[in-house]
Amino acid sequence: MQMKKILFNPLKNHDTSKKTNLYVIFAILAFCIATAIAQGTSFFYAPHYTKTLVLTCLFVTYTGLLFYLKFSGRFDEDRIVFMIILLGILFRCSYVLLSGLYERQHDAGAYTGMGTNFVNPGHIGYIEYIYKFHKLPDLNPYELFAYYHPPLHHIISFLWLQLNIMLGVSENLAFENLQILPLFYSYLCMVITWKILKVLEIEEKGLYIGLAFMAFHPATIVMAGSVNNDMLTILFMCLTILESLKWIQNKNLAGLIRLALCIGFGMITKLNSAVLAIPLAIIFLIHFISVLRTRKKSILLTWIKNYFIFAIIVAPIGLSWILRNLMRFGEKPGVPVPGETSPMYTAHYSLWERLGIPAFSDWNFPFPFHPISAKACNNTWVIMFHTSLFAEEYPANLSDILLILCQITFILAVIFGIITALLLTAVLFRHARSRLEGQLSEPFPPHAPGQFTNQKTGRENAIFLLTGYIIMLISFAVFVIIYPYTCSSDFRYVAICLVYISIALGLGNKYYLCPVYEREDSVFAKLKSVSMHIINWGIIMILAFSTVIYIFWERW
Questions:
Q1: 207 to each of 66, 85, 237, 435, how far by Cα in Å?
Q2: Residues contacting 189, CB < 8 A, separation 6+
Q3: What is the pLDDT of residues 93-103, one digit of tens each?
Q4: What is the largest CA-CA distance in the chain?
Q5: Can you give the pLDDT at residue 407?
Q6: In sequence order, what are the beta bridge partners of 345?
Q7: How far is CA 55 from CA 34, 63, 84, 90, 108, in A?
Q8: CA–CA separation, 357 vs 139, rounded Å?
Q9: Residue 458's pLDDT band (boundaries 50, 70, 90)?
Q10: For a designed S-S bond to 267, which of 218, 318, 448, 478 qualifies (C-beta 3.0 to 4.6 A apart)?
């Protein structure tokens, strides 16, 4: 009966999705405003246990709503998606309210306020410079730490500071409210992940666990309170993935323009967001070759014009910061480094030690936290896993129970991190075959330029996603080689890979746990089905255990 509703009532289903979009947008805006207000009231100064009690009441209310929807028979796909996103919103809101401006930050620096002429380092100092002097820094951006970053995030943060001051918020609380912007970006990343999964036609169980992975992974929650430019960068990268998948389906100029804006603004947030332009360029090349094969001059000229429009939009925006620094200061793109005397310096170790398969002792399973020092740990992949769960924390007073839970969660994260990377490869090949064999999309009429390749959508999706994931990891390894420090191996540089794993989980459930597949009698099909169940439960355990760890971790 449910399948018939989907088939015969598409307009009703579309209306429900539109309502869900509105509910999600309302919840995001409401919680952003509520969090900002809470930080600007006496709640900000309340004892930790008082804050925890208030937030616990919110979660109890959420649980009540969840049970009401469940037992009243109103649990359809859109409502489940809304409840997953709402819980992700609550987690992020709670984290920001319980952690201050300087907690678990990266390259944050400090501020001294409008009443001083000090120019402070770090991202907060960068924002403060624009706030004090109402202009981009005049100094060489490579002479003061963190000022080398492109300025979009810092300009938006300055405007947010100004709005806070105009509304009568004190300067200290206005700076504390800098966390609201990455909080907002993190909310949007959940929504865009949902949209990505829907573009790939992932539904129900696959949609829920794929979205939940992005919503509840500890890295995304910690980064929601980070005042640097990482979260906005991930947002633009998520948008680039979404718009690329949509463009692969539609092949139109409007999609190219949206892609140009996503990549361009991503590059003036953080230059590494340009990495996704590489798999996109491969798709462009494949498409342009197919245009050439038509031997139709009108279609060829149309797409030359379209790609030219894409270039004249993305290049001035994306390269503006690089060109500014070249012309004004003679500086090429790069990252200032702390020097060879830093305890984080890893160049003394071989490439295999840094980027090869870690030895068992490298993992440090008894105490799975990042020690910062290269002497203690210098393998990139180990540091990546450490920081993916626990950021750069190295707790001194962790209870025995929590430590055991951290050990278990870390082991599970390593095992299922490797498994899901392999799963991504398998399901993308399966996705390409299913789209081609089943011809899930009807071909567009011949008069629609560039849309004659729509039957190859699945193959192009697979190429774009798989090459994007591989290139992301390769660029991460190259970054570690060029800048040989343990901080270069932090998971935040490849946090966008969480979206790829969400896709792997979604497609894995779609292909290996669908009713048709599960009815197959082959041993291989049953093995895949059982394996997918194991992966699902492994991911759920990682998310559940990491949530418990952060709830009882007395480090706020």
A1: 18, 12, 20, 18
A2: 214, 220, 231, 234, 235, 238
A3: 999 988 888 88
A4: 75
A5: 96
A6: 485
A7: 12, 12, 17, 8, 27
A8: 42
A9: confident
A10: 318
Please name the residue that has the structure tokens 């000229």.
301
Please tell me the distance from the alpha carbon of residue 391 to that of residue 490, in angstroms, as a whole number.
Answer: 8
Q: How far apart are CA 187 and CA 224, in angstroms?
A: 8
Give the whole-angstrom CA distance, residue 122 versus residue 102: 12
> And the tokens for 210?
């794929």
Is a pLDDT exceeding 90 seen at residue 47? Answer: no
CA torsion sign for 366, 372, 378, 383 is positive
Backbone phi, psi, residue 135, to 5°:
-165, 165
Among the residue ranges 94-103, 357-366, 418-427, the one predicted with the least confidence is: 94-103
What does the pLDDT look like over 491-543, one tens digit per residue? 999 999 999 999 999 999 999 987 655 556 678 888 889 999 999 999 999 99
DSSP class of 228: S
Cα 208 from Cα 188, distance rounded (Å): 17
pLDDT tops 60 at residue 446: no
For 303, counting Cβ atoms within 10 Å of its Cβ (0-12 exposed, 13-18 middle, 19+ buried), the class is: buried
Indicate the SS3 state at residue 485. strand
HSE-up (13 A, CA, CB side) for residue 28: 21
- Distance, in Å, from the CA atom of 107 to the CA atom of 246, rounded to the nearest integer, reads 35
Residue among 196, 288, 130, 544 nearest 141 (CA): 130
- CA gap 411, 128 in Å, rounded: 41
pLDDT in tens, 71-93: 888 788 888 999 999 999 999 99
CA 340 to the chain's CA centroid: 32
Q: Is the pLDDT of residue 262 over 80?
A: yes
Instruction: Write the Ramachandran bin of 204: left for phi over 0, alpha for psi from -120 to 50, otherwise beta.
Output: left
Q: How far apart are CA 296 and CA 174, in angstroms?
A: 59
40 band by pLDDT with thresholds 50, 70 and 90: confident
Q: CB of 92 within 8 A of CB of 33? A: no
User: Is pLDDT at 68 greater than 50 in this prediction?
Assistant: yes
Give the domain ranges of the chain.
23-228, 230-336, 340-556
Could you give the residue ranges of the DSSP H alpha helices within 167-276? Answer: 171-176, 180-199, 204-216, 218-223, 230-250, 253-267
* Residues belonging to the chain: 556
| Distances in whole angstroms, Cα of residue 327 to Cα of each of 317, 320, 322, 331 | 16, 11, 9, 8
Name the residue with tokens 């009532």: 9
Q: Are 461 and 245 in contact (CB under 8 A)?
A: yes
* Residue 364 contacts residue 474 (beta carbons within 8 Å): no
